[in-house]
Amino acid sequence: MNFNARGAWAIYKSELSRAWRAFFQTILSPVLTTSLYFIVFGAAIGGRIEQAGGVPYGAFIIPGLLLLTLLTETTTNASFGIFMPRFTGSIYELLSAPVGVAETLIGFVGAAATKSLIISTIILATATLFVDYTIIHPLWAICFIVMTAAAFALFGFIIGVWAEGFERLQIIPLVVLTPLTFLGGTFYSIEMLAEPWRTVALFNPVVYLVNGLRWTFYGTSDVDIAVSAGLTGLFLALCTGIIAWIFRTGWKLRS
Amino acid sequence: MASPDATLHGVESILDIKGLTKIYPDGLKALDDVDLEVRRGEIFALLGPNGAGKTTLIGAVCGMVRPTNGTIHAFGHDTARDWRSARAKIGLVPQELGFDIFETVQRSVAFSRGLFGCPPDPARLEEILRSLSLWDKRDSQIRHLSGGMKRRVLIAKALAHDPELLFLDEPTAGVDVELRRDMWRLIEELRDGGTTIILTTHYIDEAEEMADRVGVIQDGRLLLVEEKHALIARMGRVEALFRLASPLAAIPPELATYPLSLTEGGTRLCYRGSGREADGEVAALVQAMVGAGVLFTSLDIHESSLEDVFVDLMESAR
Ligand SMILES: Nc1ncnc2c1ncn2[C@@H]1O[C@H](COP(=O)(O)OP(=O)(O)O)[C@@H](O)[C@H]1O
Ligand SMILES: [Mg+2]
Q1: How far is CA B43 from the centre of its chain?
Q2: How far is CA A173 from CA A68, A156, A169, A177, A180, in A?
Q3: Which of A49, A34, A7 is nearest to A129 (CA)?
Q4: Distance from CA of B85 to the nearest CA of A (A)
Q5: Buried (b) or exposed (e) across B84-101, using 16+ Cβ within 10 A?
Q6: Interface membership of A51 toward B (CB under 8 Å)
Q7: Rounded to an integer, what distance in angstroms lies between the CA atom of residue A130 and that of residue B188?
Q8: pLDDT digits 0-9 by tens, B181-223
């Protein structure tokens, strides 16, 4: 036996069914929150701000808001996926089954990324109710969203292995990802910032993600789009490397 | 060395552990140079007090514990390198309850089957659930089941991929009488179907009832591995208490070669023998007593159980 496809499929399916069980929490609640942002920032405030980065303000904030949800939800989902078996003790089954790093990642990370893609689709569909927008590079947008979802699902998986309790599980999305996204040009173009904040902002990696996605939507970006793609790829590779190490050493998983 | 057709006294060895040592990061040596071979089709009981290293040993074979030293071959596959092939044939019922409690019984068991790479088989699933009296509960969430039922679910999950080697870690610790009886029946059925079973227990009567061979483990060291009956015969003791017709002042010289003692003012004669010959020796003793004119009114013989043997072993190992 080499690759255990049925094993990977079993994990993937059970993770999606877990999300379905908690439909409100995993799917509905992020969509609702994002819709509120559209209403408040897009419709209410957007009416007073003419344009940002060359597009109407309501449309301008869509990629950033999508990314905000994408980053936090993917990370949280993926981290819960692997943390729960550790917490309940059912991890013994994964550890004693003929599944390795590939099956585990396809199962857990694939499911988390799938959930994020579903959420993204719903959010983008919901956005059309509040704002007029068109995506000029839809294929690149899909690529970018899939890559980001995969990268942060891997990142979440690492957190789920590392965390010893529920607090640690929540802390990264809440204390790191959300602020970085808010400060990462979701609601404004960093061109609007005065120095030194403009330069400071360039050290925020999420700036490159937001701008990358915004470029796929509207063709405009504050930063070099190649740098955005490169950073996303780098992050993906880094997380994959860490997970490969986790599996090789059994860190926190095998005693 | 260990290949699929490795044999042990002509019987195929299904699990071959050599020099297995586990030192936990805190420095605790949970397994100390353990060698063990388990034969296909047998029921092997690993006996030992709490903390002896039983769960660690199972974990090392199944993949939860990374051995510090030593090799493990299951079905001829090195579990460190060829772990996929080895694990696909091994099932484990863990000591502690642990599952996604919001999942239904049926889905949880079906998940286990898939995880081990087997295609869905609703008929087999039904058979397993029925044999564990879980069929009526198949659509219940696990959290709504009683403790005993939860344990049945763990067993069903372990059987879902029809393992050839099944580990049961303290299967009857803290379970009710009914489940215990069901468990024994199930273990017998599995054995009759050709499954090799390794169970750990500290209920010695359980090992005595079920096991073909026992291994005694303490402080990470496997003190001995032996066929159950041979062990009792070798290590067991026979005590015979004679109530004498008339008191004796001393043991007559004709009986001096037997391990005897006089108690209760010379009204009781007590024989304490050990080992394989003890039974026959009691018969010879009775004849010798008749010959010496020592008459008795009653005789009470007690043969030691596996439990006595176990307690003796534990004490002598300290
Ligand atoms: N993860 C662990 N880290 C450190 N020590 C452990 C761990 N698991 C078990 N031990 C210790 O190893 C010894 C053997 O434990 P265990 O294998 O569970 O014994 P048993 O199953 O026979 O009761 C015990 O002293 C236990 O405290
Ligand atoms: Mg134990």
Answers
A1: 7
A2: 10, 9, 8, 5, 10
A3: A34
A4: 6
A5: bbbbbbbbbbbbeebbbe
A6: no
A7: 67
A8: 888 888 999 999 999 999 998 777 777 778 999 999 999 999 9
pLDDT at A42 over 80: no
Model confidence pLDDT, tens digit, residues A114-131: 998 999 999 999 888 888
Give B85's DSSP letter.
H
Tell me, yes or no, if the pTM score tops 0.80. Answer: yes
What mean pLDDT, rounded, does chain A reach? 88
Chain-centre distance for alpha carbon A98: 29
The answer to whether the beta carbons of residues B92 and B167 sit under 8 Å apart is yes
Of B24, B84, B118, the CB nearest to A255: B24
Position B57 confidence tier, pLDDT thresholds 50, 70, 90:
very high
Token pair listed for B170: 């303290």
pLDDT for residue B5 is more than 70: no
HSE, side-chain direction, 13 A CA sphere, residue B183: 26
A:79-138 residues touching chain B, CB 8 A cutoff: 84-85, 88-100
User: Which residue ranges make up each domain of chain A?
Assistant: 5-249
Q: How many residues would you count in chain B?
A: 318
pLDDT for the residue A156 = 94
**Other residues' Cβ atoms within 10 Å of the Cβ of residue B192:** 9
Assess contact for A106 and A12: CB atoms under 8 A: yes
> What structural domains and CATH numbers belong to chain B?
7-232 (3.40.50.300), 237-304 (3.30.70)
CA distance B122 to chain A (A): 15
Interface ipTM? 0.89
Torsion sign, CA atoms B129, B142, B94, A11: positive
| Cβ-defined contact of A1 to B88 (cutoff 8 Å) | yes
Q: What one-character DSSP code corresponds to residue B203?
A: -
Give B126's contacts (C-beta < 8 A, 6+ positions apart).
Answer: B135
| Calpha distance B123→B113 (Å, rounded) | 13
Rg, Å, chain B Cα set:
24
Average pLDDT over residues A229-254: 91
